[in-house]
Amino acid sequence: MKRSTKITLISLTTLAILAGIGAAVMVMSDLNSRYQALGKERLEQEIKEAEKKKREEERATKEKQVAYLKEHEQEMTGYVKSQNPEITTVKFDWDSIRVVTAGNGTPQGGSKVLLIFGYANGSKLTNIKLKFAVDKENIPKIDSITSDNLNDI
Q: Whole-angstrom Cα distance, residue 49 to residue 55?
């Protein structure tokens, strides 16, 4: 073979190899993009599922809290009336229940407490608030009942 033919064949072979490498890089890049997109979709799905599970757990906990407090409604009413003799009737707002962290001025913060609001003497102008310590499942402890606004009514 002539020297120029050899050079041409070597050049064409080199170009073919480079083209193959370039195509492989493009395919790998495309696969990588698809894999990342799939991973992102899976992550987003897992986040949605975790959020849904958390909402369901919060709803179930809230239902347990309401059921527990309704079982002890007479004790709660008795406590409110014992703190202020001017209070004759009490109505609790069962939808107002929430668990918060009570601040106590220390770096580690306070403990969790459950709050429930209600009304005294049939008037929405006489708001009451009861606080309860909660257990590890955020269920209130009836013997920990306190309030800081019953004397102001």
A: 10
